[in-house]
Amino acid sequence: MNLKFGTDGIRGPVETKVTPEACLRIGHAAGIVFKELGWDTVLIGKDTRVSGYMLEAALQAGFLSVGMNVRLLGPLPTPGVAYLTKSFRNQCGVVISASHNDYQDNGIKIFDNSGVKIDRKIEMMIENILNEKITSLPSVEIGKAKRFDESGPRYVEFCKSTVPDEISFTDLRIVLDCANGASYKVSPDVFRELGAETIVVGDQPDGFNINQDCGSTNPELVQKLVKEHRADFGVSLDGDADRVTIIDRESNILDGDDILYILGFSNPNRLGPWSGIVGTQMSNVGLEDGLKELGYDFKRADVGDKYVSDLLSKEGWLLGGEPSGHIICRDLVSTGDGTIAALKTISSLVMLEKDPKDVLSCYNKIPQINESISVINKDIVSDAEVKTAINDIKSDLTINRILVRPSGTENKIRIMIESENKKTAKKYTNDLIKLFESKTP
Asked: Maximum Cα–Cα distance for the chain, whole Å?
């Protein structure tokens, strides 16, 4: 079985990649590694996919077989699992989720005892024993499993605690889209208990409708509802609630770059851990220029909130994120958290007494074209003709930046072209898509 960790754990179709056997092997192999690291208990959370219960059973069987104790958290946002993992000390966490993918996929994300996604060294240790024969310890030595029913309330209280006492949500009307995913119970409670009038959608999961025409990858739903309900904000989470898109009262979409700028703008401190902000190769060059004008250093990580987190840790900084809406506020959480990012953004705007458009008018966002194309083999990005086409585009002086990369979570090629001449950028994007299509059977 050829299982490898990607940019966000292991992810793929349930029938061919993230199968019950695969999860049994992952639990068995990871359990062996975790015990070597001194961790004796694993917390397992999941989103709302129909395959979740099946894979949860297989995963916990693997852990139990090597003597790891298991605490089953039920449906809980990925950042909620990370928070509890760090809170409980000397334990590790696993999330069964394929994030923003459709219900046919599922995946495994793993956190170490500090609530941070495991590093490549630990991933390789797990990969190296995934194909070993699965055996069980004697019955007297196998682990024990039990449910932890307080996971949701614990996470809700934590989220609420991140909002300063002087900030009130009682005069706010907020549309909240939970993507029929892991946040369908907890995130509505957070906003309601903070006093906001909350209109909730995407809170009726049936195992199949996660991310379906809703969630952060489909913000048009919240755009429409913000306008209909004359709401102050819209908050659109993805399937495991580790990323967010925010909608302002005029139904404008705020992506991760906009959120980072608002958070940077509202922070009066530019010293020490607040002296720099991390983006990714996908971050708009306008964001970089805007943050530098505010007095911040800015560095780019590889795409993936794991790499953003790694660079933040290396630099000793506290704020970073991706245009997709993975926002890491390391002063509060150890990983991307859509609910926390929304709370902090809204709190910042309330404190400033400004509309988002007034803040965002302070930086110039360069037009950016982003497209994806499905492929069978992602190595096609290394094709000689593709490389030549990319280099030809780079030679056009009207193009600011171009990034063509394989997705770390799906069988897709991502294309990003940034240019003041949007028409030219769109033409080049279409040319690349046609080229990839001609090379895909």
From this structure: 69
Q: Residue 91, Cβ neighbours under 10 Å: how many?
A: 22
- DSSP designation for 327: E
Dihedral sign, CA of 13, 14, 15, 19? positive
Q: Known catalytic residues? A: 99
- Please name the helix (run of DSSP H) or strand (run of DSSP E) that holds residue 13, with its range, or none: strand 10-13
3-state secondary structure 360-415: HCCCCCCCEEEEEEECCCHHHHHCHHHHHHHHHHHCCCCEEEEEEEECCCCCEEEE
Assess contact for 222 and 202: CB atoms under 8 A: no
User: Backbone phi, then psi, for 230, in 5-degree steps?
Assistant: 50, 50
CA-atom Rg of the chain in angstroms: 22
Structure-token match 């987190």, residue found: 309
**pLDDT score of 377:** 85
Neighbours of 161 (CB within 10 A): 10
What stretch of H or E contains 297?
strand 297-301
3-state secondary structure 125-176: HHHCCCCCCCCCCCCCCCCCEEECCCHHHHHHHHHHHCCCCCCCCCCCEEEE
| 196 φ, ψ (degrees, to nearest 5) | -75, 145
Domains of the chain: 10-149 (3.40.120.10), 154-360 (3.40.120.10), 368-438 (3.30.310.50)
3-state secondary structure of 269: coil
Residues 6+ apart with CB under 8 A from 128: none
Q: Are 344 and 350 in contact (CB under 8 A)?
A: no
Per-run averaged pLDDT (10 residues), the chain, 441 residues: 85 95 97 95 98 98 98 97 90 95 96 94 96 95 96 97 96 98 98 98 98 96 97 98 97 97 95 96 96 97 92 97 96 95 98 95 92 88 91 91 87 92 93 89 70
Query: pLDDT at position 7, please?
Result: 80
State the Cα–Cα distance between residues 182 and 49, nearest whole angstrom.
9
How far apart (Å, rounded) are the C-alpha atoms in residues 60 and 64? 6
pTM of the model: 0.92
β-bridge partners, 70? 42, 145
Instruction: Give alpha helix (H) positions in 283-421.
Output: 285-293, 305-315, 338-352, 356-360, 384-394
Q: What is the pLDDT of residue 383?
A: 87
CA–CA dist 193, 127 (Å, integer): 43
